[in-house]
Write a structure and sequence with these properties.
Elements (H helix, E strand, L loop, with lengths): L17 H18 L6 E5 L5 H8 L3 E6 L2 H13 L4 E5 L12 E7 L8 H11 E12 L4 H6 L2 H6 L10 H5 L6 E7 L11 H8 L6 E7 L3
Parallel strand pairs: 1-2, 1-4, 2-3, 4-5
Antiparallel strand pairs: 5-7, 6-7
């Protein structure tokens, strides 16, 4: 059974909370500012889960393929796409062995999924493989050295949640990935996990106090 099969039914509940909605907003702003998707472009969403990013990209007119190794997450994503009348090609497949040829997609996005790959370096190489030369790869990471990283690495999370399977990365490790193709990085989410009433105004006050909990990085595949 895939790691997230047990979480599938409750996964989207997080986005319905004030903090979850706020976190999602900040993360998407960072990811989309780097990806800058254009209508008609082919994009693969690796580790798509219940389709959070896939559906947003499809709504923008992109041709989206979402891949995840949790069948239950994929089933929910398919139903969500159907309910919103959005066309997305969702596939249940091993994210470390993508079932596609080389140089196929215009771009790739992968958010908070690399941390759960059995071999994150191999998994990222696989993402690069299926993207066309000069294409964009945007990956969103939970920052290991942040309040959010500390929370997810706490004893409780390590013992009772899917984060027992996670390996978080720090800024230096992210910068070491395909160094010759790394273009830009966006850091956000300085708001702490215990903030009950998150807001952009409060986020601004946290910026100079806390390390960012989320890092989005952009690579451009060499020609």
């Amino acid at each position: 059974m895939a790691i997230f099969d047990t979480e599938a039914e409750i996964y989207d509940q997080w986005y319905g909370t004030p903090l979850g909605n706020f976190v999602d907003r900040l993360e998407k702003e960072a990811v989309f500012s780097l990806l800058n998707p254009s209508e008609g472009s082919s994009i693969i969403d690796v580790g798509c889960g219940t389709g959070n990013y896939s559906l947003e990209l499809a709504a923008l007119g992109c041709n989206v393929t979402g891949v995840d190794n949790s069948k239950k997450m994929i089933d929910i994503a398919i139903e969500k796409a159907r309910s919103r009348n959005l066309k997305v090609n969702f596939l249940f497949a091993d994210v470390s062995k993508l079932p596609f040829g080389d140089d196929l997609f215009d771009a790739a996005v992968c958010v908070a999924a690399v941390e759960f790959f059995d071999n994150w370096q191999k998994g990222i190489d696989e993402i690069f493989r299926v993207v066309k030369p000069d294409g964009k790869i945007v990956i969103g990471f939970i920052n290991k050295k942040s309040h959010w990283g500390e929370l997810y690495q706490s004893n409780y999370f390590k013992e009772n949640t899917v984060f027992k399977h996670a390996r978080l990365l720090g800024v230096d490790e992210i910068r070491s990935i395909h160094t010759g193709e790394l273009i830009d990085m966006k850091e956000t989410l300085c708001t702490t996990p215990d903030e009950n009433e998150p807001s952009i105004e409060k986020e601004k006050t946290y910026v100079n106090k806390n390390k960012p909990g989320f890092i989005a990085a952009l690579w451009q595949k060499k020609l």
